[in-house]
């Protein structure tokens, strides 16, 4: 098991109508891990611009810590999902493609890990990041993900898929499982188990 000693910069992408649990659950896993094992993760949110962003159903507004031009260089970018109709709009939004998704692609090409939650993997359609990788997404969008990404191998009936530089998950709560898995991968089973204990969480196993 790899034991990382360097503090990892973890950037959580936020955008209009982002799914709350997709974002907050993995974020809390890494924050708890950092509390248990200090200086393991530096977590922050990143938006296209540093203005309030409304989460799903306009239930709350959040202000990103940074925008894509001012954030620290991320070692990992977490891409939460949104309802499918919003994902479709973003895939047709040229400005979003040329700014936010290009920001992700540029960092991915320089070695940054990309970790998508739920329909977040769909957002990467067209970037080339998913090509020649095993990937997954929410069960309701598996066929759509396959249609948009014919060069990717869409995996069904798993909670998450680890392709080293690319991690994708199934729907919503699968983001917790994958984040816990990543903590274990980075810092060992003991730290992961402590986070699970604090969460009082019964996590599920995955094939990857």
TrEMBL record:
Organism for this UniProt entry: Chryseobacterium candidae
Coiled coil: none
All residue ranges annotated as the DJ-1/PfpI domain in the record: 9-181
Gene3D superfamilies with a match to the protein in the record: 3.40.50.880
InterPro entries tied to this protein: Class_I_gatase-like (IPR029062), DJ-1/PfpI (IPR002818), INH-QAR (IPR052158)
Protein name according to UniProt: DJ-1/PfpI family protein
One Pfam family hit: DJ-1_PfpI
UniProt-listed SUPFAM superfamilies: Class I glutamine amidotransferase-like
